[in-house]
Amino acid sequence: MKRLLAFLALCTAASACVQAADPITLGLSYPRTGSYKEEGLAQMRGALLAIDEINAQGGVLGRSLRLSSLDDASKPDKAVRNVDKLAKEGAAMLFGGASSAVAIAAGKRAAQLDLLYFGTLTYSNDTTGKDGHRHMFRECNNAWMSAQVLGQYLNKQLPGKRYFYVTADYTWGHTTESSLRQTTNTQDAAQHAGLKVPFPGASLADYHNALTQAAASNADVLALVLFGEDLVRAMRIAKDLSLTSRMQIVAPNLTQSIVEQAGPGLMEGVVGTEPWTWRVPALENSEAGKAFVKTYSERYAMYPSSSAASAYSIVQQWADAAKRANSLDSEALIKALEGHSYTLLKDRQQWRSFDHQNLQTVYAVKVKPRAEVLKDPLKQDYFEIVERLDGSTALPDLATWQAERRNAGQPLALQ
Length: 415
Prior knowledge:
five-stranded parallel beta sheet, Rossmann fold, 15 strands, single chain, Leu-bd, transport, 17% strand, signal, 17 helices, Extracellular ligand-binding receptor, alpha/beta
């Protein structure tokens, strides 16, 4: 009998050890298909690199990490279903998305399941504004931060010019156009006209119609508030209509993937913003950032984009918070993240306590001439950084944030 009890105790202990060693699942819902699929692929690469590095250092709380991923195709309803599937699989946290509508919808569902959701590419002000909640953290900048640094640059280089806006008809497009109009003093729609195009699913005819009207206007600046493949399609039509030589093209949120898809020849001279480029670590003297660029480049034979950097940073920051909290509990992690200041791939960043927006430096960038790009060994030296803005000076304060929440009928503190 004693031998049997000892054997059963040994089996129980062995089972407990196996359970303790079970990997922690991180759930990535990202666009593997659709207009933003290249940004999604970069997120996958950045996340896998971070997980491999963390596992090589012993994992989190004595357990390794594993990634489970699902395609959201940049569709909010599909992203919500992904949240349910990943939660059922036992994911400890969720992240991803390249559409603000997706991030907002998925984040709300994650909150209902008491799971943290980290927005990877979600630039709409609404994500951490009127639609913000305790379980949502945004790693990238918001539309207002982009508009501040872009407006600062454009107002110096192109003062008093007439604008024409072509905007994706959803939350990111709306808040990005509104923010840029404010910072460039182009709120008068009679003088600075604009058109909305459907998202998702805009046709070539939609872009051709909008850009034909832009061509017929007296505008000096064409603001293409579009992203991913949508921006690439619009740029090709703009080229056919000779708009790329007649007007200064502004694309508020650029990525390395967008320039790769379109080609630097087509994108030459386009002005936009980035929260990070592979040149930033050298600019900000970030040793960890330089190491990330080196490791990523060796592994994937390409430079990391801001999309990859965001996913990498999210995994690293979540793991760091879990270690500091000594817990995977969402409430414990929220407390560990709120107000936390750190340096990773650039200069100092911070998770702002009252809205969970990441405070960070934002950069205005201009696409280099093709001949200059081709001098680089990987032919991916796309961006000249033309303006830099400290993120802490570019965000609305608590009173402004609360006023926006009040107008939307939302609580004045995250729930």
